[in-house]
Write a structure and sequence with these properties.
heterotrimer; A alpha+beta (about 80); B alpha/beta (about 230); C alpha+beta (about 725); A: about 80 residues; Mth169, Chain: A; 3-stranded antiparallel beta sheet; 3 strands; elongated; C: about 725 residues; alpha+beta; Phosphoribosyl-aminoimidazole Synthetase, Chain A, domain 2; 7-stranded mixed beta sheet; about 35% helix
């Protein structure tokens, strides 16, 4: 079994009001060193696969088909835990 | 002419649309379960508003894989007519039957409000009963109503006159204040190049009776019906 | 399966524990102790409030089901009935505002469709602290988003409600949600456990560890040292609830259900016990059959879990398979977890092993009741002794603007624009447009009106009179849109009833509700009690929220608050008053929350309601708006703003203080606008019902102007007033 992580972020140029709101609030709270925040999604996936490469291919496939919308989002996958 | 209004798990606008077509306009219309795979009987398919599958992942992202959607795609290819309202528009975007995507509203809140809209294209099946540049009033109710497309797509939409509705002030100005949810170029509704698929964020079914305070929405439905039935107006 | 809580931790006292031992003839085990503690909590057992609640009038020809069912049911003609109830979700919302408020909506909606009714509307009555407090802002933001997130996703319109702000709610926000459903009278479903041998089917979400002992803890004061004892707050899944609604209504429509009960406070324990007790049945439940979301759950955890979006269905004979099939069609898990028995025992098993066994009726009917002694608090007489003559005169024009900007009075658009109030296309009077929401009933000529009301400052100053005022205001609000009040539901939010002063507030308020409800013929058909709303010994204001429903025989004769036409005359129905006690004016402009609560004459109130209904039926009124927070001046301003038409009011002081004349919140008063031709008709009508009417001005221009004895005291442009009133809440929350 593998555990995969999928990180989904908004593409450059897509408005991120949640990130902006968090950024502004943090500066209000005194974290004046915060320059920018981008909000995204983190998805943890447990999956069966023959190999690590196969697991990565699977994660990419599910990202493209369902979990990310490529019109507005980018995704990045990683496999963090090998076969037990 | 006969319409199908699709019921998805979690959708809620189907009964409102059904009420207008069936009770107000006395047209033939069926509520169709999302596991239906055949739409041969119908001239018009309406994907209603609501929160199909709880809007989980993204609005419309799960509904697009409902069994009925293969038939909807085939229906679209045949050039038959599809109207997506609210969540229904979001499904059409997820299916790439219309270009672009939706984001969370710019103020991060759900917005339920009457809006003024500029009707930019009356040469469509859905809007032939309006005058071009007419200012109309329809309500929106959405958390993800913020339409987004990139610059090349926007240019293409403009070139092909695919922008049908835009948020505006009561006197027709396309200002940022009138752009409730932050949509690209104040876009509230677009049509595909072929002209048979319209997606819109405002809810025409909610302003189709005097008792609800407005009837501009009814003109969307009568435009469709008159054209499909070959009635001259 | 021992846990680490003692019976005291679970909220039981020594006598109650002894009583349990007596009932069982032995020491209870941990599971049994848990079951008793949740069922004998105030939330489920009403042990402090039941003796008082029994005094409320609950019957009338319009009442189909009163208290005792999941919700009240009133007849609205044509074989149709309204099902409605209000319920609190205060303590979860104080901890996690979004999920707390969201699951509050989920819970009240389940109470409605459990009765076989299609939910058609939600209202929310909120009480929050002062908005200068950042935590309060966070709470308001989360609570509103939670209500919106859940209700909007369900596709049920949130059509009304109210919000008050006062520092007594800083740490104890109140979230009271009212659900309303429409049902054909012959399809009403009840929570009964069917025949011996009937299976118990659990439908919906899997069971997790969330909310264990929620019922107990909502019945206790929150104090910081108990923080580690707090249950995890339940999270809502509106999508699951939406599927449950559709599936359950289909089951009832197909006639497959003998009994149905939602799982709310105290989870499986309560819903099974309530169902079985109705027919004196027993039950045997196998917890290993319950679908679980987490691993290694104990029977105790499974029986006490308050995981949301679950229903218990008892099918009619032979219908179990069909029930499961329909649930599966809606992608819902449906599992037989036990059966109805004939021995009156609630038996909990893990497969074949019995792990707990208690008499059903001991849980539901033997809950000890406490007739406590109330004691009139010191403050009561002190406040009553306050004399308004000692008040400094304030600049009226400034006071007017300050009141418009008070969050309690200011526009609530920031809130209601987050709610989908139009879905289902029945909402013909939308939030903010009138004193009550109005919904049509498709295919009928009639309409229904809904409101929630309670001015808790008045209740604090005088619980008896304050509660009467709350009932009167609700009834008046309905009459202002043209609806005859039918029945009410109440949500009694109070502090710790073990304190004599709090118990006195509860006693007096319930007495007041009873008196008013009898006088106005609006019986109490459902309700909920939320006690122990205090933190660090600071109780909230006693807040008996009244939810009321009414019927409009002809929906085309509905009315809202907006002035309609220039030159219309503005008329005040009712008496001028010098009473400033408990007013928003005293609070905002003088920093005082004191005084004598204005007198209310119930006969006069009933006559005023008759006058409004007759006048609206005769189409005399072009607008109707009751005088409440902020008094006459604010009432007129709100009608002007709603209609975007100015007005000029000229009052005669007649020895009254100017500020009292303009800002008194004395009850039984309404401002209407009429066509001058109708003066005589209105005079006749008012005369016949012994209600005073005064023509106080006319709709004109683009300013809100008030004169007293021909001297101008207020003159504000509509634009300025709209900016102050319209932006106040928006700016604070931005």
């Amino acid at each position: 079994m593998f555990i995969g992580n999928i990180y989904i972020t908004l593409k450059e140029g897509v408005l991120d009001p949640a990130g902006k709101a968090a950024n502004n609030k943090l500066r209000d709270l005194g974290f004046t060193n915060i320059n920018n925040i981008k909000m995204g999604k983190f998805i943890e996936v447990e999956l069966e696969a023959e190999s690590k490469e196969e697991a990565i291919r699977q994660l990419e496939a599910i990202s493209e088909q369902l979990l990310a919308n490529l019109v507005i989002e980018n995704y990045r996958v990683e496999v963090v835990e090998g076969d037990k | 002419m006969k319409s199908a209004v699709v019921i998805f798990p979690g959708s809620s606008g189907e009964n409102d649309v059904f009420h207008i077509l069936n009770n107000v306009l006395d047209e033939r219309v069926d509520l169709v379960w999302h596991k239906t795979t055949n739409l041969d009987d119908y001239d018009l398919v309406i994907l209603p508003g609501g929160s199909s599958y709880g809007d989980y992942i993204r609005p419309g992202a799960i509904a697009r894989y409902s069994p009925i959607m293969k038939a909807v795609e085939a229906f679209a290819k045949e050039g038959k007519y599809i109207l997506g309202i609210g969540n229904g528009w979001q499904m059409l975007l997820e299916m790439n039957l219309l270009p672009g995507a939706v984001l969370k509203n710019a103020n991060l809140k759900f917005i339920c409000s009457d809006t003024f809209l500029k009707l930019e294209n009356n040469k469509t099946l859905f809007t032939n009963g309006f005058k071009v540049d007419e200012i109309i009033r329809m309500p929106i109710a959405s958390g993800f109503g913020n339409y987004f497309c990139d610059e090349p797509t926007l240019q293409e939409l403009l070139t092909n006159q695919q922008i049908v509705l835009r948020y505006c002030t009561d006197d027709g100005r396309l200002t940022p204040e009138a752009n409730y949810n932050g949509a690209t170029a104040n876009i509230a509704g677009i049509i595909n190049k072929e002209g048979n698929i319209l997606g819109m964020m405002p809810h025409p079914e909610r302003c189709s009776e005097d008792i609800l305070g407005g009837t501009d929405g009814l003109r969307i439905f009568t435009s469709i019906i008159n054209k499909l039935k070959g009635v001259n107006i | 399966m021992a846990g680490d809580l003692t019976y005291k931790d679970m909220g039981l006292n020594d006598e109650e524990y002894s009583q349990i031992i007596e009932i069982l003839g032995r020491e209870p085990n941990y599971l049994e102790l848990g079951m008793f503690s949740v069922m004998w909590s105030e939330h489920c057992g009403y042990k402090s409030s039941r003796p008082l609640l029994k005094t409320l009038p609950t019957t009338g020809p319009q009442v189909i089901h009163g208290p005792g069912e999941n919700a009240g049911v009133v007849d609205i003609g044509d074989g149709e009935a309204l099902v409605f109830k209000i319920e609190s979700h205060n303590s979860p919302s104080a901890v996690e505002p979004y999920e707390g408020a969201a699951t509050g909506v989920g819970g009240i909606i389940r109470d409605i469709f459990t009765m076989g009714a299609r939910p058609i509307a939600v209202l929310n009555s909120l009480r929050l602290g002062e908005l200068k407090n950042e935590r309060v802002k966070y709470l308001l933001d989360g609570i509103v988003a939670g209500i919106a997130g859940y209700g909007n996703s369900l596709g049920i319109p949130t059509v009304g409600g109210e919000v008050y702000f006062n520092s007594v709610y800083d740490n104890n926000p109140l979230v009271n949600a009212m659900g309303v459903g429409l049902v054909n009278i012959d399809e009403i479903a009840l929570a009964v456990a069917g025949e011996v041998g009937s299976p118990l089917i659990l439908v919906g979400s899997k069971t997790g560890r969330d909310g264990i002992h929620g019922a107990t803890f909502s019945s206790e004061e929150l104090s910081d040292d108990k923080a580690d004892k707090r249950p995890t707050v339940q999270a809502g899944d509106p999508f699951m609830e939406k599927l449950l609604i559709e599936a359950c209504l289909e089951l009832i429509g197909e006639n497959l259900v003998a009994g149905m009960q939602d799982l709310g406070a105290a989870g499986l324990t309560s819903s099974i016990a309530e169902s079985a007790s109705k027919k004196g049945r027993g039950v045997r439940v196998d917890v290993s059959k319950v679908p679980q979301r987490e691993t290694n759950m104990t029977p105790y955890e499974i029986m006490l879990s308050e995981s949301q979006e679950r229903m218990l269905v008892v099918p009619i004979e032979g219908a179990a398979d069909k029930v499961i099939e329909i649930c599966n069609k809606w992608d819902l898990e449906a599992v037989i977890i036990g059966e109805v028995t004939d021995d009156g025992m609630f038996e909990v098993c893990v497969a074949d092993e019995v792990v707990g066994s208690v008499p059903v009726l001991a849980l539901t009917d033997d809950c000890p009741l406490y007739l406590r002694e109330g004691a009139e608090p010191e403050y009561y007489k002190q406040h009553k002794a306050f004399v308004e003559d000692s008040l400094a005169e304030k600049d009226i024009a400034k006071a007017f603007l300050d009141l418009l900007a008070s969050p309690t009075i200011a526009s609530k658009e920031w809130i209601f624009s987050q709610y989908d109030y139009q879905v289902m296309t029945n909402t013909v009077i939308v939030p903010g447009a009138a004193d009550a929401a109005v919904l049509r009933v498709k295919g009928r000529n009639k309409g229904i009106a809904l409101t929630t009301d309670c001015n808790s400052r008045m209740v604090y100053l005088d619980p008896y009179k304050g509660a009467i005022l709350a009932v009167c205001e609700a009834a008046r609000n309905l009459a202002c849109v043209g609806a005859k009040p039918l029945a009410l539901t109440n949500c009694l939010n109070f502090g710790n009833p073990e304190k004599p002063n709090i118990y006195w507030q509860l006693q007096e308020a319930i007495k007041g509700i009873g008196t008013a409800s009898l006088a106005l013929d609006v019986p109490v058909v459902s309700g909920n009690v939320s006690l122990y709303n205090e933190k660090e010994d600071k109780p909230i204001y006693p807040t008996p929220t009244i939810g009321m429903v009414g019927i409009l025989p002809d929906i085309d004769k509905r009315q809202d608050m907006a002035f309609k036409k220039a030159q219309d005359l503005i008329v005040m129905l009712g008496d001028f008053s010098s009473a400033l006690g408990g007013s928003e004016y005293l609070y905002i402009c003088h920093g005082l929350e004191t005084g004598q609560v204005p007198e209310v004459n119930l006969g006069k109130e009933a006559n005023l309601i008759s006058l409004l209904l007759q006048g609206l039926a005769d189409k005399i009124f072009n607008s109707c708006h009751d005088i409440s927070e902020g008094g006459l001046a604010i009432c007129v301003a709100e009608s002007a703003l709603a209609g975007n038409l100015g007005c000029r009011i000229n009052l005669v002081a007649n020895q009254l203080r100017k500020d009292a004349l303009l800002f008194s919140e004395a009850p039984s008063r309404v401002v209407v606008s009429i066509n001058p031709e109708n003066v005589e008709n209105l005079e006749k009508l008012a005369d016949s019902l012994d209600i005073k009417m005064n023509i106080i001005g006319e709709v004109t221009g683009s300013n809100i102007s008030c004169l007293v004895d021909n001297e101008e005291v207020i003159d504000v442009t509509l634009d300025k007033a709209r900016q102050v009133w319209g932006e106040a809440l928006k700016c604070i929350m931005a």
